[in-house]
Amino acid sequence: MDKHQILELLHQVKDGTAAPEEALLKLKLSPFEDLGYAKIDHHRGIRQGVPEVIYGQGKTPEQILGIVKAMSDRGAENILITRMSGDAAEFVQESIALDYHPIPKIGIVGRCKEVTAQGKIVVATGGTSDLAVAEEAALTAEVLGNEVERLYDVGVAGLHRLLANLDVLMQAKVVIAVAGMEGALASVVGGLVDCPVIAVPTSIGYGASFGGVSALLSMLNSCASGVSVVNIDNGFGAGYLASMINHIGGAV
């Protein structure tokens, strides 16, 4: 139950189409649901405006399906499942409609494609190898009601590729810069745009990249103002934060 459903329930009590006792029972049931292996936070949408997101890695297909069904039964839309394996997706698709994206390993149930923010989020990558993390960020932002534009493979090894898209960058309300290796893309973008830049270091790179630690440290030490950094390969966190920034100031 989200805040809109609660408001509707209160209006029903007010106009007499729902009994106060019925409304009380629904509110009692809604804070969380204990499935034994998971306690689903049904009030997440009320507090944060977004339903609980399911982290698929480490969960069995049966557990993922159980959580999705419980959320769907309570009217949740745009249920996002991150780090979901192909096997888990096939299992869930046998019982419920699932929109699965294999590259970022994201599943979406009950997708509503309504855009609720006025600004645009641009997701840029240093290279094609960063695509999985970038798509995790882009799809997360889209599911949360944002218009997203992708600029892939525009890293500093060929700076002209990035500069050729300055018009796209300048129109963004938030830019997500996804890069591995030395992670220089975030600093370059940060020096070009007048909006917040969310830097995402990826684990892409040779031995001395230390699984993304080199890119992480480069991004943390960026001399460009307005650059913030999320954890290594955390496309979801970047997409979620970008959505929050993009929704500041009101929805469409």
UniProtKB/TrEMBL annotation:
SMART domains noted in UniProt: AIRC
Pfam families in UniProt: AIRC (PF00731)
All residue ranges annotated as the PurE domain in the record: 119-251
A molecular function GO annotation: hydrolase activity
Gene3D superfamilies in the cross-refs: 3.40.50.1970
Any one of the GO BP annotations: 'de novo' IMP biosynthetic process
Superkingdom, taxonomy of origin: Bacteria
PANTHER family, per the entry: PHOSPHORIBOSYLAMINOIMIDAZOLE CARBOXYLASE-RELATED (PTHR43064), SLL1489 PROTEIN (PTHR43064:SF1)
Name of protein: PurE domain-containing protein
The species this protein was found in: Hydrogenoanaerobacterium saccharovorans
